[in-house]
Amino acid sequence: MTAVTLETSTAAAPSRGPRGLLWAMLRLHCSALWFWALLMAVGVGTLLWAYGPGADAAWAEYRKVGCGGTAADLGCDFTVPAYSRYDTAVGIGAGILGLVPFLAAAWAGGALIGRELESGTAQLAWTQSVSPARWLAAKLAVPAALLTAGSLVLTLLHRMLWSSDGVLRMAMTSREWHHGITFQANGTLATAYALLGLAVGVLVGLLQRRTLPGLAIATAAQMALMAVTVALRPHLWPVETLTDKDEYPPFIGMVVGDGALTSTGARIEDPICVDNAKCLAEHDIVGFYRDYHPSSHFWPLQLVETGIVLAVAGLAVLAAFRLLNRRTGAAV
Amino acid sequence: MTETAIEAAALSMRFGRRRRPALDGCAFRLPAGSVCAVVGPNGAGKSTLLSLAAGLLRPTEGTVTVLGQAPATARERLAYVAQDKPLHPQLTVADTLRLGHELNPRRWDAAVAERIVAEGDLDPAAKVRTLSGGQRTRVALALALGKRPELLLLDEPMADLDPLARHQLMAALMADAAEHGTTVVMSSHVVAELDGACDHLLLLGAGRVRLAGPLDELLAAHTLVTGRADASLAAHTVVESRTTGRQITALVRPEGPLGDDWQTTAPSLEELVLAHLRAPEAPALRLDDAREAAV
């Protein structure tokens, strides 16, 4: 009889493995889970390849062309093929970390929340013995744990590469510590942005209650938020200033701004006099300045921005819970 | 007074400020153990009422209590099947039932759910997305009954079923309800679907309660009369009347003896409902002893 076979297939299973909402989350979003595992495998694989064979090949080829003695060897600032392969691999690893926040936002706004509200399966869950708040908590906690774990692993690998390939990098001048994707991939920011993507996606999904608008608006909102925080990035920690009498100070680190100085010490926009003494005198220019962040500002900048991003994510989560509560009357 | 399954007082629900309220000051009381039909034209507020009772929406005004609690706290004791039978398309039938088990760990009765699925000859390994509408209904009902609810809220439960499956599922539902004393509330606009199954009636129109109470009392309160067109029915409440030639047929609520001018018959459920649907301005009648103060 059908009933008998059914009983054996379902009754035995629940005794092992995850239970309750965790089981439901893993089972319902099993394809997303596979995708995440695949993406992490590609990221980890690429970065490990770069760390081992990729870096070795780049070094070997670099030495073969007669470089590798000193970092400042001016004759060696060209790119060898093996190095560009190495650089591409590191770029893929960091690129995945840069992409994850948008993927998280799109998925959370679309498949995780929007689709469930659109099809009514969210309501199906809420009329089981699961309150909307617990449902939302599971929707946030399980992906957050997986996003955090995956992002942290890739970040650690990226940092490991970063600390080992300094000389190679300097010779090729391909990447700098303050470049957008590198900056995020080397610290806590990649993880924080992934969590922000999840929170923004969940909130937008709850607001839109439909799959495609949830997906699209969540991605757009994440882009807008990141545009703001990235624009704020240089201003999150006091800058250091270099000044020089005759010419601009050297261009180092994350440059925030530069210009000319007058005899009163005021900063003005450079009138581009170059060497014209008359022009310089006319504008009362006695020197030049440059505001910048040295690489020692990496962690302060990183941590302040992480704090802001996590605070925004926290606000989005709070708003999501309040919205759901107001709509369903769970607290009555 | 018997235990109460659902009690609504001044219950209103408004979706957006500019739209007409979906429910407008509803008050009724449904005793536990009854099987209640919620009928009314499209847009009468049937689905809204069931969603409110299921704790899926928060009322704009008024209150609804189910099983003596707020719907949100009675979640574990009620089951709800929405009109479009939402299920996860990517799950198999067996996994859908497992979901019921995982999300109702303290109440789940796997045997009940599996029996309903098996009666429909459904393959437990079939994905929900491959099922027909009627098969989905069966799985949705299995999920609802497997929870062993004290209150079962069904929104247009039988709409997708062929007559045979409808009959069979309705019988299974009623047998289960009778055995466990489950209160069943089901909405429908197919009155024939409900005849013989229900002992309570809630007729909604334009977001308001038109009729509420035990079905036999409501039927007893109405009489179908036929007589000469010039005879007077002024002493009684006329729900609806139709004149054909020199003869008038009317559904009335007699306020006293009707007199010899009239041929009287007892209306059927369908006649009672149709007369009220055709005459939206007929006064409401409530025989459900809800607290009047709440209206």
Notable features of this structure?
heterodimer, A: 332 residues, alpha+beta, 12 helices, 4 strands, flat, B: 295 residues, alpha/beta, Rossmann fold, 2 domains, four-stranded antiparallel β-sheet, 7 helices, elongated
Q: What string gives the helices and strands of chain B in order?
A: EEEHEEHHHEHEEEHEEEEHE
Give the count of structural domains of chain A. 2
Query: Taking Cα atoms only, what radius of gyration of chain B do you get, to the nearest Å?
Result: 21 Å
Helicity level of chain A: 55-70%
Mean pLDDT of chain B: 90
Query: What strand line-up does the widest sheet of chain B have?
Result: 5-6-7-3-8-9-14
Work out the oligomeric state of the chains in this entry.
heterodimer
Q: How many domains, in number, for the residues of chain B?
A: 2
- Overall geometric form of chain A: flat
Number of E-type strands of chain B:
14
Structural class of chain A: alpha+beta
CATH superfamily of the largest domain in chain B: P-loop containing nucleotide triphosphate hydrolases
Cα-atom radius of gyration of chain A: 26 Å
Give your account of this protein's structure.
Chain A: It comes from Streptomyces curacoi. Chain A: Keywords: Membrane, Transmembrane, Transmembrane helix. Chain A: This is ABC transporter. The complex is a heterodimer of chains A (332) and B (295). Chain A has 332 residues and is α+β, with helices and mostly antiparallel strands. Chain A folds into 2 domains: 31-236 and 299-328, no CATH class; 240-296, no CATH class. Chain A has helices at residues 2-11, 20-28, 30-64, 81-119, 121-126, 132-164, 166-172, 180-185, 189-208, 211-232, 277-282, 298-328, and strands at 240-244, 254-262, 267-268, 285-293. Chain A is flat and about 80 Å long. Chain B is of the alpha/beta class and 295 residues long. In chain B, helix 2 runs parallel beside helix 4 (133-146) and helix 3 (110-119) packs antiparallel against helix 4 (133-146). In chain B, the strands form 3 sheets. Chain B has a 7-stranded mixed β-sheet, sandwiched between helices. In chain B, strands 11-12-10-13 form a 4-stranded antiparallel β-sheet, with helices on one face. Chain B has 7 helices and 14 strands. Chain B has helices spanning 46-53, 93-103, 110-119, 133-146, 163-180, 215-220, 269-278; strands at residues 4-13, 23-31, 35-39, 61-66, 78-81, 151-155, 183-188, 200-205, 208-214, 223-228, 237-244, 247-253, 263-265, 285-286.
